[in-house]
TrEMBL record, chain A:
<protein>
    <submittedName>
        <fullName>Transketolase</fullName>
    </submittedName>
</protein>
<dbReference type="InterPro" id="IPR009014">
    <property type="entry name" value="Transketo_C/PFOR_II"/>
</dbReference>
<dbReference type="InterPro" id="IPR051157">
    <property type="entry name" value="PDH/Transketolase"/>
</dbReference>
<dbReference type="InterPro" id="IPR005475">
    <property type="entry name" value="Transketolase-like_Pyr-bd"/>
</dbReference>
<feature type="domain" description="Transketolase-like pyrimidine-binding">
    <location>
        <begin position="10"/>
        <end position="175"/>
    </location>
</feature>
<keyword id="KW-0786">Thiamine pyrophosphate</keyword>
<comment type="similarity">
    <text>Belongs to the transketolase family.</text>
</comment>
<dbReference type="Pfam" id="PF02780">
    <property type="entry name" value="Transketolase_C"/>
</dbReference>
<dbReference type="InterPro" id="IPR029061">
    <property type="entry name" value="THDP-binding"/>
</dbReference>
TrEMBL record, chain B:
<protein>
    <submittedName>
        <fullName>Transketolase</fullName>
    </submittedName>
</protein>
<comment type="similarity">
    <text>Belongs to the transketolase family.</text>
</comment>
<dbReference type="InterPro" id="IPR029061">
    <property type="entry name" value="THDP-binding"/>
</dbReference>
<keyword id="KW-0786">Thiamine pyrophosphate</keyword>
<dbReference type="Pfam" id="PF00456">
    <property type="entry name" value="Transketolase_N"/>
</dbReference>
<dbReference type="InterPro" id="IPR005474">
    <property type="entry name" value="Transketolase_N"/>
</dbReference>
<feature type="domain" description="Transketolase N-terminal">
    <location>
        <begin position="9"/>
        <end position="270"/>
    </location>
</feature>
Length: 317, 281
């Protein structure tokens, strides 16, 4: 079994901020917009280094999305920054019409996604954003797992033409993917090879999936772990290949099971290789206040529950 | 005063195009289109520096964004007659597989359209983004928008208006089609807009009023006045008073023709009132 080392916990939002800082230096077409959350999104360095390319729009997300669409006209690559809830649900129609339907090269960068912003509660958490964004034709949807991968994704999406939703979060989480690693949009990463069950995880739950494999291994269960950082377009080939090998699947995400990664995987498998599947996701509910760890435990989004679901799905083979 | 007969001839022809497009598919929005005909004809043919060979980025060109996308019949006619695409294509308006969708879109690649519109209130934000990039690129051209007055009920308009004034977006001229009508009735009945000059001035805009928005000479004078106000650290608004359905007597001045098409007899009468000047498509 491959051992992954946490090289020092960091927040994924800082991966975005540091990636944006680097982009600011190497790509003069990159512009950034923020709706009064510059510090929370870690966009300060970009704002300080390039004040002429940084647009503080105030608490006006709808205007921000429209402005971002307009900034592509003339060749700029706009990156918008606010919380995931205000990046999607609040401005869905603006994204739909002015960005997605209009084929605009806008990068919607969303922090504080899922439950793990914690104490602010359900108004500031969002568990529906992956579904909202993946339903938009032409939208690329990315949910990164750690600091290094978020930084790499931030750099990669600048070179990809088309609208992108990049989802990351607030808490400090294990940083375990390679520093300055390559990020290929739409390409799954096989983290752990196994034979009994496939765990397909995205975002913060990728590390939890790796932790779950340790517990499973002690019970003599060999789990394969796939990191799906790109939910759309989905790497269907990697999913089908692994399902054929192990014969059962657990999906894990910090999102509602409705509209999330799990449903995309289920569709892929039902069309190509019907396979028993269990879902680690929230169960059609809003979040609530609490510490990130408490919330992940209460809603079953942790290594312990991933391992339980793995054992359950193996029995369904 | 400059001779504007060629614009007036074009206005008449565009009005024919509008009602013929809408009649052919028994759907579309003639009322607002007819009311904005003088404005769009004047803007595209006498004011804007633009290239009908069409490049999306529009660098060193004046740009126009239609925010109230439902008046697509007038937009399409003016674009076609400005050389963006063949006028014959107007016959495909709202038909399956057309580039002339019910509301304008970039999705089908129609030259001249830079953003989709239809869901209201979004065009001013887009224009502000494009105007900001013009400044970044050292491009001194102007960005124009058009909005319905009913559209001002959308909150995003006021987010955008606040931003533009606070950030000295002075290469933007937003025109409001003040026809006092919307789908459910007059704007006063549905949701009164109050004093629009006061509102825009309070937001920090310069305001130009054109009381005769269906008079080419008045429209041209108003846009020219607005242009003299650019580059002075304030966005500019033109309050363009028009008559919905202008140019066709039985459509004029009422919200009734906002979104319905004329029948055969009504079309014939509308065309009789607007004789062919430059050739029908």
């Amino acid at each position: 079994m491959k051992i992954y080392e946490n090289t020092g916990s960091k927040d994924t939002r800082s991966g975005f901020g540091d990636g944006l800082t680097e982009l600011g230096q190497k790509n003069e077409n990159v512009v950034a917009l923020c709706a009064d959350l510059t510090g929370s999104l870690k966009m300060n360095a970009f704002a300080n280094n390039h004040p002429e390319r940084f647009f503080q729009v105030g608490i006006a997300e709808a205007n921000m999305m429209g402005m971002a669409a307009g900034m592509t006209i003339g060749g700029k690559i706009p990156f918008t920054g606010t919380f995931a809830n205000f990046s999607t649900g609040r401005v869905y129609d603006q994204i739909r019409q002015s960005i997605a339907y209009s084929d605009k090269n806008v990068k919607i960068c969303a922090s504080h996604s899922g439950l793990t912003l914690g104490e602010d509660g359900a108004t500031h958490q969002i568990l529906e954003d992956i579904g909202l964004m993946k339903m938009l034709p032409g939208m690329t949807v990315i949910n990164t797992c750690d600091y290094n991968q978020t930084k790499a994704a931030t750099l990669a999406i600048a070179d990809h033409h088309g609208p992108v939703y990049l989802r990351f979060g607030r808490p400090k989480v294990a940083n375990f993917t390679p520093e300055n690693g390559e990020f290929k949009i739409g390409k799954a990463v096989l983290l752990q090879e196994g034979t009994d069950v496939t765990i397909i995880a995205t975002g913060h739950l990728v590390w939890e999936a790796l932790e779950a494999t340790k517990a499973l291994n002690e019970k003599g269960i060999s789990a394969e772990v796939i990191n799906i950082h790109t939910i759309k377009p989905l790497d269907e080939e990697a999913i089908i290949k692994s399902a054929k090998k192990t014969g059962c699947v657990v999906t894990a995400e910090e999102h509602n099971f409705l509209g999330g990664l799990g449903e995309s995987v289920a569709r892929t498998l039902s069309l190509n290789h019907p396979t028993p599947q269990e879902f680690v996701a929230t169960n059609d509910t809003f979040g609530e206040s609490g510490t990130p760890a408490q919330l992940l435990e209460k809603y079953g989004l942790n290594a312990e529950n991933i391992a339980l679901k793995a054992e359950a799905v193996i029995k369904r083979k | 005063m400059a001779d504007t007969q060629h614009l007036k001839d074009l206005v008449t022809q565009v009005r024919r195009d509008i009602v013929r497009q809408v009649h052919a598919v028994s759907s579309g929005h003639p009322g607002g289109s007819l009311g904005c005909t003088e404005f769009l004809v004047t803007l595209y043919n006498e004011v804007m520096d633009h290239d009908p060979s069409f490049n999306m980025d529009g660098v060193n060109e004046d740009l126009f964004f239609l925010s109230n996308g439902h008046i697509s019949p007038v937009f399409y006619s003016v674009l076609a007659r400005s050389g963006y695409f063949p006028v014959e294509e107007l016959s495909t308006f709202r038909k399956l597989n057309t580039r002339l969708q019910g509301h304008p879109t970039t999705h089908e690649g129609l030259p001249g359209v830079r953003i989709a519109s239809g869901s209201l209130g979004q065009g001013m934000s887009v224009a502000i983004g494009a105007a900001a990039v013009k400044k970044l690129n050292g491009d001194t051209k102007t960005v124009f928008t058009l909005h319905g007055d009913g559209e001002l009920q959308e909150g995003q308009i006021w987010e955008a208006a606040m931003y533009a004034a606070a950030n000295d977006v002075d290469n933007l001229i937003s025109t409001i089609d003040v026809n006092g009508q919307q789908i459910d009735g007059s704007t006063d009945q549905v949701l009164a807009l109050g004093d629009l000059r006061d509102k825009f001035e309070a937001f920090g805009w310069k305001v130009v009023t054109v009381t005769k928005g269906n008079d080419v000479d008045a429209v041209l004078a108003g846009i020219k006045e607005a242009l003299t106000l650019t580059g002075k650290k304030q966005p500019i608004c033109i309050l363009l008073h028009t008559e919905m359905g202008n140019g066709i007597d039985f459509m004029m001045g009422s919200h009734a023709w906002h979104g319905i098409a004329p029948n055969d007899e009504q079309l014939a009468e509308a065309l009789r009132q607007n004789p062919e000047t430059l050739g029908d498509y």
